[in-house]
Amino acid sequence: MRIVPNNTGLGARIFDLDLSRPLEAGEFRTLLRALGEYGVLCFPGQDLDAPQLSAYARRFGDLEVNVANMFHAPGLPEIMILSNKRDAAGKPVGLNDAGQGWHTDMSYSTEIALANVLHAKEVPLRDGRPLGDTQFRNMHAAYEDLPAEVKQRLEGRVAIHDFQKFWDMMRIRPGSIRAPLTPEQRAKKPPVRQPIFRTHPITGRRVLYCNPGYAMEIEGLAKTESDALLDYLFRHQSQAKYLHSHAWTPGDVLMWDNIGTTHNAKADYGPDEPRFILRAQVMASLDYAALAA
């Protein structure tokens, strides 16, 4: 395989590797290391069905079945369908994930996610230009650039992350079809404590693990101080120098690190500009330091 890093400080493109076949041990180790180093990996020109995508993603850890997943591949609840398309009866065929705002998947869960793996089948176009970019921010670099006094102030602190914060924010978006969480769904995803700084399981380096999508408050601080520090962290990580934006092409498989990045899907396409993407989410269920060694 060939690994070609981007010039943004985040992301790389992987060539000459067919993801429809099982990974060899050396290939897996190389990709795991690349995920830690580059944060976002794009494999262009792939053609995977849902079972093949599931098999590839499962190589990196257990796959999550989303508590509120309404749309998935037949017989594969771990493969979510992201789409703005509708069937002949006018019903949605997938979850439209655009415009969710900046977040880190599964930070609302005690068991966090290692990575997302998305496979584009249809990409919206306008005037020949792809729409619906997925954007990323580098949380390795964001941590490294924090002032020493902020690192000292927040070392060992935890933030409370809440799934309902994000869900309720999405429900009020125009055109949303999301229903309120049921008591059963809410019980499965109560607020959780997450360290604001954590050691990345692949790189062994510290990352800023605090995102505006789910983080509610810093435990043990007065509300005014907590709000001020969270606002500072969110503004700090929003600097342009940490940004990488992926423009989709049909056939792309995009895999990104959910511990060392935050992400956002741009909502710049309309309902008549079709998008269809298969998605798997890999939980951080393996000893990645040992596997990458």
State the name of the first-level CATH class.
Alpha Beta
List unreliable stretches of 5+ residues.
none
Summarize the amount of helix as a percent range.
10-25%
Radius of gyration (Å): 19 Å
Instruction: Give the overall shape, derived from the CA principal axes.
Output: globular
Q: Strand content of the residues, in percent? A: 25-35%
Q: What is the spatial order of strands in the main beta sheet?
A: 1-2-3-16-6-18-5-4
* Biggest sheet character: 8 strands, mixed
Q: Mean pLDDT score, rounded? A: 93
CATH architecture: 4-Layer Sandwich
Number of strands: 18
Please give a structural write-up.
The chain is an alpha+beta fold. The protein has one domain (2-292): Double-stranded beta-helix. The chain is built from 8 helices and 18 strands. The protein has helices spanning 25-38, 50-58, 139-144, 148-154, 163-171, 183-188, 223-237, 288-292, and strands spanning 2-5, 12-15, 40-43, 72-73, 76-83, 113-122, 125-126, 129-130, 134-138, 158-161, 192-195, 197-199, 206-208, 215-218, 243-246, 253-257, 261-265, 276-283. An 8-stranded mixed sheet has the order 1-2-3-16-6-18-5-4, with helices on one face. The chain has a 3-stranded antiparallel sheet with strand order 15-9-17. It has a 3-stranded antiparallel sheet with strand order 11-10-14. Strand 2 (12-15), helix 1 (25-38) and strand 3 form a beta-alpha-beta unit. The longest helix has 15 residues, at 223-237. It starts with a strand and ends with a helix.
